[in-house]
Design goal:
The structure holds two protein chains of two kinds.
Chain A (H helix, E strand, L loop, with lengths): L5 H21 L5 E2 L2 E2 L3 H20 L16 H19 L10 H14 L7 H22 L9 H4 L1
Antiparallel strand pairs in A: 1-2
Helix pairs in contact in A: 1-2, 3-4, 4-5
Chain B lengths: L1 H13 L2 H18 L6 H8 L8 H26 L8 H12 L3 H35 L3 H18 L4 H16 L1 E2 L6 E2 L13 H19 L19 H22 L5 H15 L15 H16 L1 H7 L5 H12 L7 H5 L1 H22 L3 H8 L3 H20 L3 H18 L5 H23 L6 H4 L1 H18 L1 H10 L4
Helix pairs in contact in B: 1-16, 2-3, 2-4, 2-16, 3-4, 3-9, 3-18, 4-5, 4-6, 4-14, 4-16, 5-6, 5-12, 6-10, 6-12, 6-13, 6-16, 7-8, 7-20, 7-22, 8-20, 9-18, 9-19, 10-11, 10-12, 11-12, 14-20, 18-19
């Protein structure tokens, strides 16, 4: 039997795996019975339901349409790594990661890091251009979020302010 | 009359200087973000939610509603000028709107969308004001079994009316329900699926999921496509005002679109999407007047009707939220989240316990619509400027706003780690052809559904037949079953698939 829809097959696989994992995890909690539901009851039922739905999707992926259609295509690793990396760097620099001994560098440094890293998600990024953009955004964010909205951010590196 | 009395109360609340300013700021911010290509109302609201934390509840909701209309309006601007629908419900606007822009009639197209939306918004607001109180009275009769069945109807309706694969949408709902269960169980105090991480005992924040899946997932997917094929019409927007003939043609289309949108918007799920599609189909079926441009080549009715329908629909979709506390679509799911942050439990009790908030919000809906047309048509030049900003400058800014928004929800960078995870998951969903909107609905409804199921079965002592022996609950479940059967009928299934691939 040939696979008709790659997307359906792998999404079905994902649903089955996640549903199974939730149902499996629910056994850690008291399941109870219908009249007295324990914390595990609802997730257990839903997990099984999701696993069944996933299996149906997987099964149907063999039959719906001509074989070889609906391919997933290449993963966009470059944008994914840089966008998510930029986000992680922002979080790490903004408030610091005590577990890794990283101090808080504050909002301004974090904005520069995020903008520069994110801009590399596209090929042909220019460092100069992203530094200019980062400067504009840093000033804009400072005015909007810190000065006007008074949100609580560490703005400057912790080792400079104390 | 009670209706007038209530509306007077509402306008009294909304017409304070402070609330007018918040409505204005909301509309402006919403348009600002919504006009950016590839950002629909859901990520826009999620991104701007933190801005409203410091406000009093009424002001916050008024501002959020403004953001919502602004985002929608911005979305149709992008659809007309860039040939990129900012959200699924403006997909049909693209067809004729972009053609009008190519012929140098972008101004009238934008005006038709604006005027149509304003008219639809006025009618939608009146519909809410008229129908909300009686529905609320019915809702107060509901017991846990009815609520549970109602949620089933809502969720089933949401997938039936959405586009794409039915069974995958169902699976996404269940996945959302499961994600919603992460965190401390209110009944037993057990922390479920928290892996001993203290932050997870509070559950996964819906902002994290909305931002990761709708924001980052979309950005990654946008970046993976070559973006140079976009063509922006900037220099060609000259006259804004439609001609007298344009008005004559679009007026009946606006009326038809509004009527359709108001009715379909109350339905759960893709109310706005479905009504836009249906309105366009109806316009296409009506005869062309002599000298009128055919559809698909820049007919003004093809812009006015779907835009009115989708605005009327997005307006009346507040009805299930305000009367029953059940979000009919992903945007309203975010509204529930926002209300909960301000300690308001959405549901029938809001109207009785908090009338200023309820009627103030409704009045501000009308004001928001008015502001959009009064402010945005003259400001259109500014929004167009924004569209000419290259994507390579925009997307780092969007990533930054998402990150700041997520961090400021709890002032904790754990949420930033989570949003990265959900960004990856969101991209995976897009790759696997799974629509993420039902996930958000499930996420919000998960804990509520569990609670109602638990209570219903506790009262009936574990007897599942309670859902079919109570007449109201039984009829709700019958509606859900009927919806599923109708969609699965071969002939309708084919029609449904056709309806959503029209271009």
């Amino acid at each position: 039997m040939a696979l008709a829809s790659q997307k359906d097959f792998f999404s079905g696989l994902m649903f089955t795996a996640v549903g199974g994992a939730f149902a499996w995890g629910a056994r850690e909690y008291e399941i109870g019975e219908a009249a007295r539901m324990g914390p595990g009851y609802f997730p257990f039922v839903l997990g099984i339901l999701l696993a069944i739905l996933g299996m149906v999707i997987m099964f149907k992926s063999f039959t719906s349409g001509p074989p070889g259609g609906d391919r997933i295509g290449a993963f966009a690793w470059r944008p994914m790594v840089f966008i998510l990396g930029a986000n992680l760097a922002f979080g790490a620099l903004l408030a610091g990661v005590p577990a890794l001994g990283l101090p808080a560098f504050g909002l301004v440094v974090a904005i520069y890091a995020l903008v520069v890293i994110a801009s590399f998600a596209r090929p042909g990024a220019s460092l100069k251009e992203s530094l200019i953009l980062a400067t504009i955004l840093a000033i804009g964010c400072y005015v909007a979020f810190v000065y006007l909205l008074k949100l609580q951010f560490p703005v400057w590196p912790a080792f400079l302010t104390n | 009359m009670e209706l007038i009395e209530n509306l007077t109360l509402g306008f009294g609340v909304a017409f304070t200087f402070q609330n007018l300013v918040y409505a204005l700021v909301g509309c402006l911010l919403g348009t600002l973000i919504g006009v950016l290509p590839g950002l629909g109302p859901v990520p826009t609201i999620a991104m701007l939610l933190p801005v409203t934390y410091g406000l009093p509840p009424v002001a916050a909701l008024i501002m959020l509603a403004g953001i919502y209309y602004g985002a929608q309006y911005g979305g149709s601007t992008t659809a007309i000028l860039v040939n990129l629908p900012g959200e699924s419900s403006s997909v049909v606007t693209v067809i004729d709107g972009y053609q009008m822009a190519r012929k140098g009639r972008a101004g009238p197209a934008l005006a038709a969308a604006g005027i149509g939306s304003f008219f639809a918004g006025c009618v939608g607001t009146l519909v809410i004001a008229a129908f909300a109180p009686p529905l609320t009275e019915i809702a107060l009769e509901f017991g846990p079994a009815e609520y549970f069945s109602l949620m089933i109807v809502g969720l089933i309706g949401a997938v039936v009316l959405a586009s794409g694969s039915l069974i995958k949408a169902l699976a996404m709902i269940v996945l959302g329900l499961l994600f919603g269960l992460v965190g401390t169980d209110v009944n037993s105090g057990v922390a479920r699926y928290s892996f001993d991480i203290p932050e997870l005992t509070d559950g996964i924040s819906f902002i994290v999921i909305a931002m990761g899946v709708f924001g980052y997932g979309e950005i990654i997917s946008n970046l993976s496509q070559s973006d140079e094929q976009r063509e922006v019409f900037t220099g060609k927007v000259k006259g804004i005002m439609p001609t007298a003939e344009d008005f004559k043609r679009m007026f009946p289309a606006v009326i038809r679109g509004t009527a359709l949108g108001s009715a379909l918007g109350i339905l759960p799920g893709g109310g706005a999407l479905l009504s836009a599609f249906a309105a366009y189909t109806i316009e296409k079926k009506t005869k062309l007047k002599p000298g009128e441009v055919p559809f698909g080549q820049g007919n003004i009715r093809g812009v006015a009707a779907p835009e009115s329908a989708n605005n009327a629909g997005s307006q009346t979709s507040f009805i299930p939220l305000l009367t029953l506390g059940i979000p009919p679509n992903a945007v309203m799911a975010l509204m529930v989240g926002a209300m909960t942050i301000h300690n308001i439990q959405p549901g029938p009790q809001v109207m009785t316990s908090n009338p200023e908030l309820f009627w103030g919000l409704i009045a501000s809906m009308w004001i928001g619509n008015l502001m959009l047309i009064v402010l945005n048509l003259p400001l259109i030049g500014m929004w167009i400027k924004l569209l000419t900003v290259p994507y390579r400058w925009l997307f780092p800014a969007i990533v930054l706003f998402c990150a700041i928004g997520v961090y400021s929800t709890n002032n904790n960078n754990f949420d930033i780690w989570m949003v990265a995870l959900f960004g990856f998951i969101g991209y995976l969903f897009l790759k696997l052809g799974c629509e993420p909107a039902p996930l958000l609905l499930g996420l919000i409804l998960g804990p509520m559904m569990e609670e109602y199921l638990r209570r219903a079965l506790l009262i009936s002592r574990g007897d599942w037949s309670v859902f079919v022996t109570r007449p109201l609950s039984a009829s709700l479940l019958a509606v859900a079953g009927l919806l599923l059967i109708v969609v699965l009928l071969p002939s309708i299934k084919k029609k449904r698939e056709e309806a959503f691939v029209e271009d």
